[in-house]
Amino acid sequence: MSQINAYRRKFLAALSGVAAGSLASGVILRTVQAGDVPAKPADQPISNQVRWGMLIDINRLTDGGASMVEACKREHGWGNDPKARPEQQAQWIRTVQVTDKLTQHSFTLPVMCQHCAEPPCVDVCPTGASMKRADGIVQVNKHICIGCRYCMMACPYKARSFVHENLTDQRPDSPRGIGTVESCNLCVHRVDQGQLPACAEAAPQAVIFGDLNDPNSRISQAVKTLGGSQIRADLSLNTGVRYLGL
Amino acid sequence: MPLLSKIKSLLGLALFAIALVGCDAGVPEPNLAPAKAKAAQCVEPTADIRKNHMVYLDKHRDKTVIEGIRTTKHSLNECINCHVAPTREDGSAVHYTDAKQDHFCASCHTYVGVKLDCFQCHADRPQVAENPNYQHKLSSTTYHLSATTAQPDASDLLLLGSGQVQGATQ
């Protein structure tokens, strides 16, 4: 009982901190706020009251997202599989350069799993391995993945990769193995413990991570005032990852 | 040609005898040092965890992946942090596929011939470079697995083979 009370207290304190912070210094803050991801007691299940989302301001990403990619590689240990050809290497997040043919205006954005509310990868999975957690995080349950790669075909964002070879010394919190599909999981192991995803931590000036369902969260406030576009919004997938400056 | 076939059958018999002698050398003794170390400190009673560890792990994995419950009690990561040393005394990495079979899990699994596929995906040893305080709080001062080879005693073999290890329990 006391644990739950402490949790509630922490959660409320975090909320008030966010509100004060956003009043004081505009919507996007340069510092990472701990209140974005309230710590959940380890023995409590996740809740569908929360929907995790990420807002990326690509004008503030001076390196086009390369630091985010590096942070993801470090966190999850992909990108350096010894036997894979370059085109076979896993890619949980990548930078994509877009150029307007008419004006030659060019910009770069990081693209990863967009954590759709209606994920096509989940629709096509024959075993239920491709799944959406209650809090909106889309991931592969590798325990039941049979490696058929339907989800890779279904994903309009090319967000998923397949592991072709035996791996050793994976990161303890990020199991990866032969014959399974993998993709960005918004760093579930970190989010569950009240930490930000590695990429959001690597680019605090450009990325807001938080709860889209909570109208007082920093990300909800930012999306409300500044908008935030989805890639391939025409597919009506209601993505959790949104962009500013596209 | 009866003579040739006789020779052939004799040769066959001889080969079979050689094979039998090979079998007679007995089951190789398991390296139980890793498994015995820290047995007393496990999260469940030894007999229980020996028999049911896969059930605990199986339940915990679904809770973790699907519901985000990340308690440490039955977490595979914590098993590894406590029971596997990242390196041997000579500095070489400890992996479950090593022929030495001194990896905690492999030491029994190889002996009883049960396939161990957790580590196709999961890390089979603690990562020290990023996390120097990886160890379970229980394990810091106690026996470390790498070097010594303890002789299995009768109760170990009884438990290991559920009484079916022939000749080993007498």
Automatic annotation (TrEMBL), chain A:
| Top-level taxon of origin | Bacteria
What's a Pfam family in this record?
Fer4_11
For this chain, one GO molecular function annotation is:
metal ion binding
What is the species of this protein?
Thiothrix eikelboomii
Domain 4Fe-4S ferredoxin-type: residue ranges = 136-165
Would I find 4Fe-4S among this entry's keywords? yes
* UniProt keyword annotations, A-Z: 4Fe-4S, Iron, Iron-sulfur, Metal-binding, Signal
Entries under CDD domains matching the protein: PsrB
* Membrane-crossing residue ranges in chain numbering: none
Identify this protein by name.
Prokaryotic molybdopterin-containing oxidoreductase family, iron-sulfur binding subunit
**Secretion signal span:** 1-24
Automatic annotation (TrEMBL), chain B:
Q: Which UniProt keywords apply?
A: Signal
**Does the record carry Signal as a key word?**
yes
**Leader sequence residues:** 1-19
Q: Give the superkingdom in one word.
A: Bacteria
Q: What is this protein called?
A: Uncharacterized protein
Which lineage do the record's taxonomy fields give for this organism? Bacteria, Pseudomonadati, Pseudomonadota, Gammaproteobacteria, Thiotrichales
